[in-house]
Every structure is written in C-alpha cells, then in structure tokens.
Model the fold of this input.
Amino acid sequence: MYNVVSAAELRALKQLFGQVSNSVIQDGLIHKEEFFRALFDSSDGNLFGDRIFHKFDSKRNGVIEFDEFVRGLSVFHPTADFEEKIKFAFSIYDKDGSGFICKEEVKDFLFEVMRENSKLHFTDEELDTVIEQVPHPPWILQPLPMRNGDGMMGVGHSSLSKGKKNPLAPLP
Done:
C-alpha cells in the first residue's frame, strides 16, 4: 500500500513518526505508551486502542516500526481501496481473527465504551437487547444463516456495495 502515499506524504509521515517514536523512549520505535499518547492523548490503554496497535504491529514484536506505521496509516488515505478500509474496520472488532464478529465481541467493545464513560451503564441483558435490535448495514455486515443460533456476522466481498457510491465518502 506504499503506492497510495506520495513522496511528500511519506516525508511528512517520517517526521510524524520521529516525533511519536521518540516522545517517551528515544529509540525510533513506537511503543504502546507512545501510541496511546499520540492517538488518545493518554497513556492509559483501552480495548479499541489495543486492537489498532495490534493491527499496526504486523511483525508482532510489541513496537511499531516505520514501515508498519506507513502501512497501517495507508488504509486511511483518501485514495485507499474502499474494501481495504472496510476490512480494516471489521478486523478491529473481530478480536479473535475468525472472520466473524460474534455477539460477545460486540459486547466487549460496548463494555469498554461504558468503562471509559461513567455516564453510560447498561446491564448485560440491556446490552443483549441493544445488540439484537441494531440493524446490520448491508454494505458492511452480512448476516449469516443462524445455524443453531450462532449469533455471528461476517464481512466479505459479496456484502460490499460494488459499483455503488461509497457510503463513507465525505459529503460534497
């Protein structure tokens, strides 16, 4: 995905990487604490941030190197492939990497949101009701046949609106 980023953008990313990667530990690598400070303005971890860090850390060595940084950010580039953006977003919620988002994964993220916002509180039963009542956007999630009530959703090429306007595109 490097071809998505221009030479000028690559220079800007290099400068940004240098600032973030040396903000706490001066070693030219982005550690989790530095990542959280840059992304969330806090060194406190959370499930969402952990998942994004994990997606960026493709070498699984606990740090983000420059090539991983560029590759991770390239999915957010305006000219990046729409299907890649959908897959990235989906993978953040697919914690176990199964290719499906199960009810428990959705609940884990909702509990995390509640943990970070003390004004929100739902019981386990209320969360179940919310999850069951939310319609699944057909251009992102494709409900799977509920064999034995497995309560899982998947994303794939057939569920994306090929040939249709990008529903996430900015309004004119």
About this structure: The beta strands are 30-31, 63-64, 100-102, 142-143, 152-154. DSSP finds seven helices and five strands in the chain. The chain has two domains: 2-74, 82-159.
